[in-house]
Amino acid sequence: MLKESQIRDINLAPKGEQKLSWVQKFMPILNQIKDKFSAEQPFAGKKVVICLHLEAKTGYLAQVIKAGGAEVTVVASNPLSTQDDVVAALVQNGIRAYAWHGATDAEYHQHLKLALETEPNLIIDDGGDLVSLLHGEYQHLIPAVTGSCEETTTGLIRLRSMEKTGVLKIPVVAVNDAYMKYLFDNRYGTGQSVWDAITNTTNLVVAGKNVVVVGYGWCGKGVALRAKGLGARVIVTEIDPIKANEAILDGFEVLPMQKAAALGDFFITVTGNKAVIRKEHFSVMADGAILANAGHFDVEISKPDLKELAVSVRTVKPNVEEFVLQDGRKLFLLAEGRLVNLASGNGHPVEIMDLSFGIQALSLAYLEKNREQLRPGVIPVPTEIDQGVARLRLEALGRQIDELTPEQKQYLNDWAM
After folding, report:
1. Is the dihedral of CA 354, 360, 363, 364 positive or negative?
2. What is the pTM of this model?
């Protein structure tokens, strides 16, 4: 027998309803998809589990999937990004939930288990925790799972490792790799939301400071671009020579982490890897350096090393921990080293997530529609979905673009011309 929702307080629902109403107004793509799903009922009789950061934008995605006929369960992909009022509003509107803000590691994993025990047919995941658990303790549920959609770079790294070793037993749509996802969500969404969170949390000026961006993927590009716009001097650290060259041509300094560590005022990690800032780097940082992570898991800034070096640790204001080192220097870690833009902020702008969640919703419908043809493995977002979301966005903006003439189409397709 399924357990009822496990949430903080159902009485918070009215405040959550206000948040959901606000984001809906600025998500025209999802609004159009909701109308389509309501009419076509692509998920009729299906169980869907959504494992994402549980805030208002995600909440509206869950409502859109429910409008398509699904029985929806939501569970948190990060315990510090859960907004209890939004979760309460979802439960009040017929969506099951297992999540609350500040869940312990044990509670977080128990919530994931409870979500899987609903026996889902379709999954939306963020970071790969749910799909990984499915392939571990809950393998017996795999035959009923049509497939999953993965939101993040970190999740796809894990899933491609599973695929390479022959472990992955379901098809997974690489939503993160869609052009309309990484060109906009990863770059502009991460760029704005990271700095919104850092400046709101610290109330410090960015202009004139040295910002070290660790990793120059699409998220790193966005963080560096916004830091430059705020007046910072930007230093990039990289392991990829091509990305390092790109950063140089974009106008940024490129240094190894050991040299950058001595120069930075703000450090933002966006690599998807572990311990990219560690003991030897903390040892040369300036007094007052700010440490923030914008990668999915809280492993990029080595908290064990930081605690080992510290003679005292205390919370000096919400989402700011002070680590006093033996020589008296103080380093400040934001949001426990978790995803700063969600654990210490409101996440990506609404319009940006409208693009990403439009792809999620349509990719989930694609999985269900093509369930007989798809095979296990990581698969790309179909071009028609990527292009379709782009066109929906242009329509929402009231913008038009050109189309090829028949002569132009022929010219592009005839090698002999």
Report:
1. negative
2. 0.89
Confidence at residue 301, expressed as pLDDT on a 0 to 100 scale: 98
Integer angstrom CA distances of residue 41 from 61, 106, 374: 15, 36, 21
Tokens of 3: 């357990």
Q: Class of the 189-338 domain?
A: alpha beta
Rounded CA separation 32/35 (Å): 5
User: What mean pLDDT is reported for the chain?
Assistant: 96
Q: 213, 376 in Cβ contact below 8 A?
A: no
Give residue 262's identity as a one-letter amino acid code. A
Name the β-bridge partners of 320. Answer: 317, 334
Residues flagged as binding site:
126, 151-154, 181, 185-186, 215-222, 238, 273, 294-296, 341, 348
The encoded tokens of residue 300 equal 């990029």
**Lowest-confidence segment of 94-103, 181-190, 248-257, 323-332 by average pLDDT:** 181-190
Binding residues for substrate: 126, 151, 181, 185
CB atoms within 10 A of CB 320: 16
Q: Which residues are annotated as a binding site for NAD(+)?
A: 152-154, 186, 215-222, 238, 273, 294-296, 341, 348
Q: Compute the distance between CA of residue 42 and CA of residue 396 in angstroms, rounded to an integer.
A: 24
Which homologous superfamily is 10-177+348-397 in?
Answer: Adenosylhomocysteinase-like (3.40.50.1480)
Numbered ranges of CATH 3.40.50.720 in the chain: 189-338
- The crossing angle, in degrees rounded to 10, of helices 28-40 and 383-397 is 120
What's the Cα-to-Cα distance from 34 to each of 7, 24, 60, 63, 113, rounded to whole Å? 26, 11, 10, 8, 29
Amino acid in the structure at residue 336? E
